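P.,

For your records, the input lines for the assembly:
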Amino acid sequence: MIDDISLNILKILQQKARIPNVEVARQVGMAPSAVLERIRKLEKMGYIDGYEVRLNPERFGKSQVAFIQVHTSGKTEGQGLVKTLSGLPQVQEIHYVAGKDSYLLKVRETDTQALGRLIRERIAPIKGVTGTTTTIVMNTFKETARIPIDDQDLIR
Amino acid sequence: MIDDISLNILKILQQKARIPNVEVARQVGMAPSAVLERIRKLEKMGYIDGYEVRLNPERFGKSQVAFIQVHTSGKTEGQGLVKTLSGLPQVQEIHYVAGKDSYLLKVRETDTQALGRLIRERIAPIKGVTGTTTTIVMNTFKETARIPIDDQDLIR
DNA sequence: AATGAAAAAAACTGGCT
DNA sequence: AGCCAGTTTTTTTCATT
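Structure tokens returned:
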């Protein structure tokens, strides 16, 4: 259901989304209409989830990244907990991790002060939270959502 | 340099990149040409970093997410270390974190087995790496690169 | 599925306010 | 900066192979 041509199209798009279809068509050596049809199909079949703008966090005063391990009482408070956390725009990621009933959050805030406030006022008070461990990011060298698709292990 | 209208445009784009300009124009109540000019300016001034496709990792057999804390000897091996790590497509993020000379990586692999191989064969052998601590993600509830821009603390 | 031609929509340009 | 009107480019549709 997904062949080398489609794979190639996705690679091109992952390199630079928002290049015109005609250009993609030129690069894969097909007619624009054919490429369009393939992309539509890839979207419909769920290979493509969507398109995102990447804003520059610095410019918006959201330079401070931190990872917060949220420890919970484990008594299936998960539902409301996740929902509440999801509602916080500063929380970019929520992962349930192996170990001892805890979630790992990636958050973005203005500075460490705002971060502290976020944790104290928004996260710590959530029902089921027994504590947090914060890891402050001092420098980010790579940050992308690209996934490796050179591979043979895709679900066709 | 950035006003409420531009802010609004960015909000709309963050909601759904790849909607036509005319539609954005309609939503902010301006002429398409004016909106276009604003977007171009936002790009040029570095508020917009770029546009990305979001591929569905499941479909590409990259469902396993893990965070790897890489401990280093700290003797400024940083340069080569970061460069080597950056070259690994499975490594989506590289952060230098506060604490005891360590980097935090976000990686995506096929399964825990492939993850183990990645760590043993690609990460552990890097010069300056003294050890790794891996946190396996069992479930991801939120994962976005969106940043909060409702705010007053943006660099104008 | 792919193509090519035609139609529709969108992006862009420039002159003017 | 924004708008409008004209131009170019891109996207989309569709009949055909």
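Two observations worth noting. Residues 26 and 32 of chain A are 8 Å apart (CA to CA). Residues 20-22, 32-33, 36 of chain A lie near DNA strand D (CB under 10 Å from a C1').

Regards
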